[in-house]
Amino acid sequence: MSFADIFGTAPDGSWRAPGRVNLIGEHTDYNDGVVLPIALPVEVVVHASARADGRIAVSSVGHDAVIEFAIDELAPHSVDGWAAYPAGAVWVLRESGYPIGGANLLFDSDVPTGAGLSSSAALLCATFVALLGLAEVEVEPAEVARLAQRAENQYVGAPVGLMDQTASMCCTAGHALAFDIRSGSLDQIPFDPSADGLTLLVVDVKAPHRHADGEYAARRQSCERAAAQLGVPALRSVSVDELDAALAKLDDEVDRRRVRHVVTEIKRTEDAIALMKAGRLRDVGPLFNASHASLRDDFEITVPELDVAVDTALAAGAVGARMTGGGFGGCIIALTASDEADAVLSAIEKAFAEKGFAAPSALAATPSDGASRIN
């Protein structure tokens, strides 16, 4: 059904926000590190119209149901399911003093859910830019990202970091976004694989996220425990040159492995940024490979589907490959020669069939723009 079919009027405008994939810098964000995401050419679109009764009505394409709530009655967790995300955006805007009125919102999305490509951040950011657009209020993209993080933390109840929302709001086409969590600095790094005859494949391995929430919390606690024992505010404060001495001070072998991953991953991310600035994208491949090995062996967050996909991509000629995202399922990325991308994907599909895994899906990741108005 169309917007007019559902709400009885034409929309006042349409806004969009993309999903993201992180090139490198995994589990460094809550350690005050550096991340390097790109916005993907998949997005959440919201068609919106203003209404004058202080109520919000939301629906999604393909589902005729309309969920409606009053702005002044919102409280954390008062709306359940997927509608909690737009409700959280409304609640944060109200709590932050923005002059937000009622609205009708119809959502459409081609961001895969459950693949670790930040469909929830895209949903939130699309809601924020639509509501702010209807109110004709201008807010800096980085501030919208912080508002979106607050909505997910305080309203939805998910303890997420700031990378996903910042990528969805602040990325630009043809670039990766070097986001320094400690300083808050954003640096647009040229990233155009096609100019180097390369393709960045994002392969969803379709593995169920096994124990992801509890294991994520355990990794974070391990990092925080180690930082406290080392007497530093976060593991970002430990350099690679200081790593051996730092590891010797830790009592727990598991904590040592977690620290080794974080410290070396931050260095790999910094090295990748330097190589990309120098126009040496192919040389980033070995850093991808080392990142995956570290996530597999030291951080222990891969699953067989992720490992098979990475190993197969490399055996088929990929320049570099690694799991991306929180782990325990989700996606890998593989940097391949463009004329070999189909062969790499075919090899992964064949390997998955032989292992009895679910068939993977893939997209070629073109670095895209962050959130914007469409019309």
From TrEMBL:
Keyword Transferase tagged: yes
EC number in record: 2.7.1.6
Residues of the GHMP kinase C-terminal domain: 273-353
All residue ranges annotated as the GHMP kinase N-terminal domain in the record: 85-170
Galactokinase N-terminal domain segment(s): 2-49
Residues making up the signal peptide according to the UniProt record: none
Family recorded in the similarity comment: Belongs to the GHMP kinase family. GalK subfamily.
Protein name as annotated: Galactokinase
